[in-house]
Amino acid sequence: MSTTLARKKPAGPLKVASASFIGTTIEYYDFFIYGTAAALVFPKLFFPEATPLMGTLLSFATFGVGFLARPLGGVVFGHFGDRIGRKKMLVISLTGMGIATLLMGLLPGYATIGILAPILLTVLRLFQGFMVGGEWGGATLMAVEHAPKGKKGFYGAFPQTGAPAGTALATVAFLAVAQLPEEAFLSWGWRLPFLASAVLVVVGLAIRLAVDESPAFAAARDKGDLVKLPLKEAFRRHPKEIFLIAGTYLSQGVLAYITMSYLVNYSSKVVGLDRTDALLGVFIAAVIATVLYPVCGALADTYGRKTMYFIGAVAMFVSIWPTFALINTGTVAGFMAGVILLFGIAMPPAAGVTGSLFSMVFSREVRYTGASVGYTISQIVGPAFAPTIATALFAAYGTSDAVVAYLLVVAAISIVSVALLPGGWGRKEAAFNAASLDAADGAEPAPSAAGVR
């Protein structure tokens, strides 16, 4: 047989995980530049007739609207991801996300087209949220289901690492344009990070098209194990797991968006820091998190995914008050130390194992749907309007203590939820995962781990 007719060698797990990482980095870059723009630009550009407080609230509200479309995206992409394949859905989600972000960068402001400007912004944000709702589950499954036995924690951390990497990339983009004079920044400078997304999407698509379909999906398809209605079947088999995942992710999602959006606004408008210093602090924290996510994912393969997530959930809880205390010192060093503590150090033990923990709870026939729906339910309940709630609480009480109290309640819910997830603790959990859940292509969880039957 000639070389041209020879069967292409399947992509290795590291190549697939790297492709998932690059793709999610690009998608979260798109999603996060909106959060930064919502804090620094949109109140003036799209809500100029509102008071500064109301403009900020309205801007953060459009930020939250994107989360409302996430569950629908999770259901639709999950359905077809469980029916026709993970890879095809990831190509569609990345393309759609890039189109929405590019159009945002070209959107005229209120001064040009009036009320139509914030309306179109909201529509594009909804479309963007729909696309990212299908992104996380598919990217995670591609990495986890290609991973070798006993390594799903490590490889599953790659797509999740795209979140802080995307944050870092988005922050760098805004740091660059923030050096422009105020008038230039508000008129055209802020658009450049949005327009740059088009180039990143082309790169991401080239990488994603080069990887193979998930072996777990291929095995289910070849055996005729695909289900007609994955959503119905996911809720029939795993109702408890879906809602426990939503509660488990709550603090991670809320604190991530509080860090990258609300704290940037809070530090510049309340504490009095320069926006460049605030963005630099978020960037440094995101870089640290990007390094620690895969480290924590690897540790989970030895000490257990549930155990690592629980450690992270507790760490986030105890870091909330010190973070605000440091930021309220009004110094650049205090702000940087605060966001590094919360986003760069406390969050990685949980975030690094999110993909492998959440996806492996579900049987492979409904894994895309189950993981995506649980994850996106949490996005609506928590991160969607977290910056808006935090802004309103500070306005009502005039102190960050109200915001801290809100975040502590959220963090406590996550601690309880992860404790209630099925499965053991520590090395016994890791050994069981390696022997059972992580075997072969990650087939259907055993009763003692999934808690169903």
From TrEMBL:
Q: What does the UniProt keyword field contain? A: Cell membrane, Membrane, Transmembrane, Transmembrane helix, Transport
Membrane-protein topology: Multi-pass membrane protein
Q: What is its main location?
A: membrane
Show which residues constitute the signal peptide: none
Q: Give start and end of each Major facilitator superfamily (MFS) profile domain.
A: 16-429
Task: Tell me where it resides.
Answer: Cell membrane
Looking at the UniProt entry, the stretches that span the membrane are: 28-47, 53-77, 89-107, 113-133, 154-178, 190-211, 242-266, 278-300, 307-327, 333-361, 373-397, 403-421
The name of this protein is MFS transporter
Q: Which organism is it from?
A: Arthrobacter ginkgonis
